[in-house]
Design a protein that fits this description.
Layout lengths: L2 H21 L8 H4 L2 H9 L3 E14 L17 E16 L5 E4 L1 H4 L4 E5 L5 E10 L4 E6 L21 E6 L7 E16 L2 E9 L11 E4 L4 E8 L8 E5 H14 L5 E2 L2 E5 L2 H7 L5 E6 L4 H5 L6 E5 L7 H9 L6 E8 L2 E8 L1 E2 L2 H11 L2 E8 L2 E9 L4 H4 L7 E5 L2 E2 L3 H12 L3 E8 L2 E8 L2
Antiparallel strand pairs: 1-2, 1-4, 2-3, 3-6, 4-5, 5-6, 7-8, 7-10, 8-9, 9-12, 10-11, 11-12, 13-19, 14-15, 15-16, 16-17, 17-18, 20-21, 21-22, 22-23, 22-24, 24-25
Helix pairs in contact: 9-11
């Protein structure tokens, strides 16, 4: 093509481009300062501390057969061969809560994992060590294996939350890293059903929470951590999500980091649901009834009596005995709880200190609430636990447990010594139920007891 024709074509293209620019003028840029809303500022403050958590389970992987092996020409006698390997069992989110690399996430994200990989917002991937878990609160703590100081989210207080205030969720929904959604606090102290369990005292939000958000942060408008996203209602939440309040999460995490387990708070009062009929007759506004007070316990020393109606725990009315027990199990050691009580026509407000439920107190609690005392004894194969005494009229006596019966398991955990029994019973108390595998001769039976 002659040079003059090429030049003419270029001019036509340039003219067309200029015409297009005239039709679609360049957009005007808005200054960044004007677009940096409080939500943007909060995300910028916290985003670097949000991580993706990958839990990998150790599995057996079948190795393909070696074709043409001289040992077995036709493959008739070759046995399948396996090797160990890792397979991803769950993906979730987490949040770095200290510069040393401690990460909060959900227990259900890590519960099947043997190895954990954590992805940072800058694209790096680090391995992590599992510090501890608390299934009853669905929390877990990981420690990133690095000496580098890492960006950590500032921590707020969930007890100061207001219904209707703006909150922000960041996580890894459907594998889409660092996804931000916003909403409001829809409700506080929310209880809800998850399968056959009732979960207590959650923050409800309409900020979108989807699979993969589990373990990620719920932030306030200042970018402070006020909850750990953990659940949605049903398969499609329709704007109904739940987060663990940070005040509870902090207490659990500190115990897991410092002690390797969650220490139990103990008041020494047992309760039962208050039937609506009795509540109406007594003029109570709701709550639960104290059915027993342990001698010498903090509850007895504070003045709690059998028959008292508990109308509120730290200002929140429990819906039933299960919620009351949950709130007491969640108490910080050496802290205290304020109980609003009704005693006949009198209303009282008592402050009861919480002491640690030591292994010895656990054993005493089982003796009082269940009615059995155990001892170690020698048998074929080593030491076993046997029933030493059964108190008349107790739940253990009513189901037929007798002296000499063997206790083999507590809530699925094998026990052979008193120390093992105390630890397992202490963990069982957080579920509110003690399940014993009791053996007599060749017969064995699992028996459940309430353990509040």
């Amino acid at each position: 093509m002659p040079a003059r024709l090429l030049l003419a074509a270029a001019c036509l293209i340039a003219a067309a481009s200029a015409a297009a620019r005239d039709v679609l003028p360049r957009g005007e840029a808005t200054p960044a300062a004007a677009r940096r809303t409080p939500v943007v500022a909060a995300v910028e403050k916290a985003r670097a501390a949000v991580v993706n958590v990958s839990a990998e389970e150790l599995v057996r992987i079948r190795v393909p057969s070696r074709q043409g092996s001289g040992d077995d020409v036709f493959g008739f006698f070759e046995r399948p061969r396996f090797k160990q390997g890792y397979a991803v069992t769950s993906l979730g989110s987490g949040i770095i809560v200290s510069a040393e690399g401690y990460v909060l996430t959900n227990n259900h994200v890590v519960e099947r994992g043997a190895r954990f990989r954590v992805g940072l917002v800058d694209g790096r991937e680090l391995t992590a060590k599992l510090i501890g878990t608390d299934p009853s609160s669905d929390l877990a703590v990981l420690k990133l294996e690095t000496r580098e100081r890492l960006p950590a989210v500032p921590i707020g207080r969930s007890e100061e939350l207001l219904i209707g205030e703006t909150v922000i969720a960041i996580g890894n929904p459907f594998g889409l890293a660092s996804t931000v959604t916003t909403g409001v606090v829809s409700a506080l102290h929310r209880n809800f059903k998850a399968g056959d369990r009732t979960l207590f005292d959650f923050v409800q939000t309409d900020a979108s929470i989807n699979p993969g958000n589990s373990g990620g942060p719920l932030l306030d408008i200042e970018g402070r951590l006020i909850g750990i996203n953990t659940a949605i209602l049903g398969d499609r939440s329709a704007g109904i999500g739940f987060a663990i309040p940070i005040d509870r999460a902090r207490r659990v995490a500190e115990d897991l980091i410092e002690h390797g387990q969650v220490r139990e708070g103990y008041l020494g009062a047992s309760v039962a649901d208050l039937p609506a009929r009795e509540g109406a007759v007594a003029g109570s506004s709701g709550g639960v009834q104290v059915t027993g007070v342990d001698p010498g316990s903090p509850a007895e020393k504070a003045g709690v009596r059998r028959g008292d109606l508990v109308e509120a725990v730290d200002g929140v009315s429990p819906e039933g005995a299960d919620e009351f027990r949950f709130r007491l199990r969640d108490l910080p050691i050496d802290g205290s709880v304020r109980l609003d009580l009704k005693r006949v026509a009198q209303r009282l407000q008592l402050t009861v200190p919480a002491v640690e439920l030591t292994p010895q107190r656990v054993e005493q609690l089982v003796q009082r609430r269940v009615g059995v005392a155990l001892e170690e004894t020698r048998a074929t194969g080593g030491v076993v636990l046997a029933v030493r005494t059964v108190t008349k009229g107790t739940p253990a006596a009513k189901v037929g447990i007798v002296k000499g019966d063997l206790v083999r398991e507590v809530n699925g955990a094998e026990v052979n010594t008193l120390d093992q029994f105390r630890r397992a019973a202490g963990s069982a108390r957080r579920t509110g139920q003690l399940v014993l595998l009791v053996q007599r001769g060749y017969a064995a039976e699992r028996i459940a007891f309430d353990l509040d």
